[in-house]
Amino acid sequence: RKGTGFGLWYSGDGGHHLCCSIPLSSLIKTSGLKLRFCTNETQATREKFVKKLQGMGFDISVDEVTAPAPAACRILKERSLRPHLLVHNDLVPEFAEIDKANPNCVVIGDAAENFTYANLNEAFRVLIGMEKPVLISLGRGRYYKETDGLKLDVGAYMKALEYACDVQAEVVGKPAKMFFESALAEMGVPPQQAIMIGDDIVNDVGGAQRCGMRALQVRTGKYRPCDENHPHVKPDAYVNNLAEAVDIILQQL
Amino acid sequence: RKGTGFGLWYSGDGGHHLCCSIPLSSLIKTSGLKLRFCTNETQATREKFVKKLQGMGFDISVDEVTAPAPAACRILKERSLRPHLLVHNDLVPEFAEIDKANPNCVVIGDAAENFTYANLNEAFRVLIGMEKPVLISLGRGRYYKETDGLKLDVGAYMKALEYACDVQAEVVGKPAKMFFESALAEMGVPPQQAIMIGDDIVNDVGGAQRCGMRALQVRTGKYRPCDENHPHVKPDAYVNNLAEAVDIILQQL
Question: Which key words tag this protein in UniProt (chains A, B) (predicted)?
Answer without folding.
Answer: Cytoplasm, Hydrolase, Magnesium, Metal-binding, Nucleus
